[in-house]
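Lab channel / #folding
Pinned by the channel admin:
"Please post every new chain as: sequence first, then the structure tokens as a reply. Keep commentary short and put observations after the output so the thread stays searchable."

First post following the new format, from NK:
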Amino acid sequence: MAHAAPAPARSTRAGRPATPSVSTTAKVLPVVAGALYGFWAANIQRFGHEVTGGNILLGFVTGILVAALWFALHRWSARQGPRHMGLRALAWAAFAGIAVGFLRSLGNDTILWSVVLGAIVAAATFVAVYYRYYSATEYAPDHGPQGAAGAPAASPAAATAGTTAGRRVRV
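Reply from TO:
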């Protein structure tokens, strides 16, 4: 019985794999979080006094920065797939720790408490994100090599029959 050949992965002109599409949630969530973060930062820095241009500017700049960093980090993390779990978790942990530490530093507290709180949040974020990435790859169903119609390949030897200079080549 003949099986269909696996469909080749789509790629860009440079030969790199195509980037995954960005869902609506992945676009909206950073914008909403950035707006809330900017409002929160401006409100903390105001100290209960009247709103000034500096408060508004701080809110806009921090909100845009957080939204842009969140979106870029999410895109980079999505491109990595199941690779670099530790590096991806470290990047998210640094982002969360710095964000919380900065908000804490806007209050009238010592910088040491901002650093300690940021480190605690970063450590907790690292553990949670690493566990999420690890469990997503560890417990993902393994379907093995499949043809275009979803049927399993005839045999592993048939899927990699030819070799060229020590490399396995799909037939």
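NK: Residues 150-163 have pLDDT under 50 and may be disordered.
TO: also worth noting, The longest helix spans residues 53-80.
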